[in-house]
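Narrative progress, year one. The postdoctoral researcher (J.K.) led the effort to move from monomer predictions toward full complexes, under supervision of the PI. The following entry was the first complex the group processed end to end, covering 1240 residues in total.
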Amino acid sequence: MSVPMSRRYSYVFAVLAALAAWLFASTAGAGAGAAGRIVVSLPGGALGPLVLTPGQGGWVGEFTVTNVGADPLTVSRVALRGDDDDVRSPARLSVRFVDGAATSAVLPPGASKGVLVSWMPDRDPRMRQAFGHVVVTSTDEQAGEVAMGFRAQIPTGLGWVGEHVVSLLVLWPLVVLPVAGVWWWTGRRERLLRRIAVAVAVVEVLLGLWAYRSFVPGVGHADGNDGFQLVDRSVWVRSLGCEWYLGVDGFSLSLVLLTAVAALVALLVADGERRSEGYYAALALLTSGIMGSLVALDLFVLFGAWQAALLGLILLAGGWGGRRGPHAAAKLVAYGAVGSGAMLLAFVALSRASGRAFLVDGFSVAHTTSIPELSRTSFASKAPLVGLPFVEVAWSLLFVAVAFATPVVPLHAWLPDLLEEAPPGAGIVAGAAFVALGPYLLVRVGLGAMPEGARWAGASLAAIGALCALWGALCAMAQRDLRRFAAYATVTAGGACLYGIGALTAQGIAGGAAILFTHGLATTLLLGVTASLSQRMRSVDAQRIGGLMGEAPGLAVFTGVALGVSMGAPGLAGSWGLLLAVVGGFVRHPVLAALLVVALGASTAAHLRIARHVLAGQVDPSWRKSALLAPFGGRIPDAMAVELVALVPLVLLSLLFGLWPAPLLSPVAVAARDTSAVLDPDGPDPTIDRR
Amino acid sequence: MSHGAGTLERVVLSRTLWLIVLAPLLGCAWHLVVARRRATSASPAAASGPRALLWSQRVAVGCVACSVEAMLGHLLVLARDAGGRGALVQWIGGGVRMGELDLAFAFRFDRVSAVAVALVEVAALGTVAAVSRGPQGEGSWRAWAWIELSLAGALVAFLGDGFVTTALGWTLVAAAQGWLAGWGDAARGAVVATRGSLSIGVMALGAAALFWGLGGGWEGDDYVRDRSPRFAATQLSGGGAQGASLTMTDEAGAVVSADDVRATAVTAPFVRASLAPGRHMLRVHAGEGTSDTVLGPIAVSTGDAFSIEPVGPTLTYSAAIAQLSLRDPSGGPALSEVLADRAGPVGSSAVGAAFLAILMASLALSAHLPPPGAPVSLATMAWAASVTAVGPFLVVRLAPFLKDAPTPLRASVAVWGGVAGVVWLAGAVRLVAAARRKSVALPPAPSFGLQEWSLEALPHRLGELLVTFERWVVDAAAGAAAALFAVSVWVAARVDGAVLAAPGDAMATRALRARRALDPAVGGSIARLVWIVLGLFATSVLASALWSR
């Protein structure tokens, strides 16, 4: 049953991809034919970008401007792209001709002139990378303004791994795929494959921790590189104008770490049972896809990674889910196709509406798929689509994709079924990380690239968020199955997140981002415990599982902390995001803030109801005679060593961030400030620099 | 408004205020983890043996006593270093700044919080004494843990200098409230805890209204913000004789430098940092998420004392109230009069909306009648000393905002205060109806209701006197109420023979015998300890009354 579902999905994907390729190919190559009399090149004919290397007390590099025409060429300007109002590169970068300080020259036919690019960062620089373009303006009107891209990297201490850590975060989980293929081919033991998958996940977590450690919280848009760090950028598909453009900022950093941790917990806690090779391959695809979606700064990469995550999730639910797993997969296919289709259309529309841009190596393209470049495009003046304002149509299409993934009522029905029927490991990754992709997409593209659309839809977004939170909370109150309860709690959290983002204030946006992380933490914990209980008792019915406090205090603590974080109890990590969302949103939508508080009250009631049944209730006497618990003397066994190893760090993080939120919120603060400053130039907070 | 002059209280930085809260928290954790495990162990002897019970009791008494000692110690420091009129402040943690929003845990120990903390400490001692005299059994750990949780929650709420810290305290109190309500029926506990969480949510709404109301007003659906700089350099009255000084106790982590000289940079919180006489430009770098503020030039003479205070939105009580005393260069009040007339989010006054939300939250948290199944001493303490007190305390803490508030707001405060008083009275009546001996819970009830009611019903000046504890009358009244309360609980312990007899406690009878065996060794010493501390408390109240003269 699962194969037809995935095949059906593949058809939809193939059609959409073909449509996208056609649209991109018809437009992106338009700028590729700029072969004029001016040529910029690297020594030895190497491909760009120019790599700055240590020298002269900083990082320097040189490229050549050549006149290949028959007439003299006047180079009127050689300069870094960007200015004080449009900061593109880090400070202390300079460019000049090699043989002098001038930035203009006349080149006779066949002559060349070297251009020196130098970066003299501080001893302890805020930015450890420099990306940008040197633009050369000349009398060659056919070529117009040409550019040479450059990049510099201060050593990270981890060598090549450190320079490409974000790419590794995306690609490393895929190591499992060929290994699983070999295992399938040779029919070897699955237990060893699971160990390899765990080892891969451990390395992934270490990479995530290293990325977190390397991240400088105070860096913002004004520091250059569009505020992104750990950037990895190279040309991917030149004909389509697509780049392998990855990087992290305050919004994505914590989610990257969360995804890596959730994947590890999924393998350690939830999948003690033997699984086939395909399961581990699909889980790796899911993890890699989510990771790619979080760090992608190019629409093409983002779309591809999103589809990989979706495909992995569909395969997991359909192939290794419960009795109704194929049904859950079918729902996911249907909702996912709607969301993906809308997203693709939105991306194509945005790209076609964008202006001329340069790839990382300086190659000129007529349209761009780079998200930072799109953020410089004013879409408000674009021609209407289907008779409606461009911004409204494009933003609405994007919101459909956001609404699917968040999930927003009424596009939420796939999540309860998925968490109930998917294998526990897949449920953990989906409930913790996949659902974060919706609001993240909203922040990254909806707010970052289309601020006009966000301003247009802000109030509606807040209203939808508050109503969603209330709906999810009321539904959660009626759940007995812990996995379905987690799903509806996620709907509530997603609603609160959208409310915060819809406020367009720095506090609200930061609150939304914090909710994504903390709720993911809570969901990982809760679904981890659920998986443990399921393995022991073959039941996750809250009314049948009782008395956990007395029987298994370890699992009870995990459950209690998970519920506390999920409902936003002050003192635990989950409170900060909700507080920021309420306070940040109140200034714009006070009535909706009151509605959100009511929703959170209902959510608390739902959480306490579950806590009452699971923690404080009495163990059902029938369990004492159950064959499942007979090996344990009729008692529910407490957390095992592997569960402690996987879940105790999450509990400690929940407590630590509850009392000391700086590690969680500091990275978000600057990103939220920058976003709010663009979205709302006359916003309520005068301490935010809105230049 | 680039700078102004006001009268700010003398502030002393403390590094030890957290000790007041630490002991009850540790005790609660010990009882939940260690004592509970012993109680649920397979061996009945280990669960309820004299040694286990004795240790459980020792830890509880010790933790409460440590907290009391820490409180008394800080009272002495307050009297010595701050002259009784100032405050001890401590930044605990947090320290994230999102624009104007400063998320931080901070404690403030001034006379208002000192009286409240003393009240709850005495109540806790009384309850400990009462529980100690009752029968001990395998369920004793619950009572001890509950007392410590309730005490810790109330202490955090009373000491908190800001809505963030108060929310944490309220959470602990709401958890204790729910636990008590669910002593015999978990469903009832969940309902009460939900109400507690709602009250925290409503308080957050009130905090948001006050926060934004301090920085602007709503014109229809649009928020129009003030254009004032984030900070004001305020000249304090009564500077020292030697040199000039600069103080900044809010916005922990903010870096202040004079004339952009890196060597002069100091990190908040700091008190009386030296400042050279002359004209200075002060730069305040509040954090990564905010732009720098430049103040000045400020003319500094020998003997001047300046304080840098946040202006505009803040979640910190002291920073919010300090703004009320700011004067603009012409000498007029800079903010307080504006606030009263400023439009709020839904048409009402911003301060009015904030207070309405806080009053509702306060009532939701307070309107909890002791459950019939709970041990009477615990119920008494919860109802009268900790749970019901933290809500009104917030109103008391923010009372300075009411001075220039519109009449409808002040009337609503009075009505709410009256309603709260009635609710507490109803709770007392219910206790009396349940058992005549429990009527000892009655005396403390009116004191808190009186405070709220007096905000409006009495002549303004008198109400202010009562609420802000500015005169010895209130100190003495509070002291008398506390003493009466302590005596009441003590009497309750004497007359109520089944304090700890939780439903279904099969070990109660045997445990009672075990406790009696310990009585000469434990009960007597506890009694002596309680009376000693009560004496110290009475002394401190008298001292407080003397300072305010």
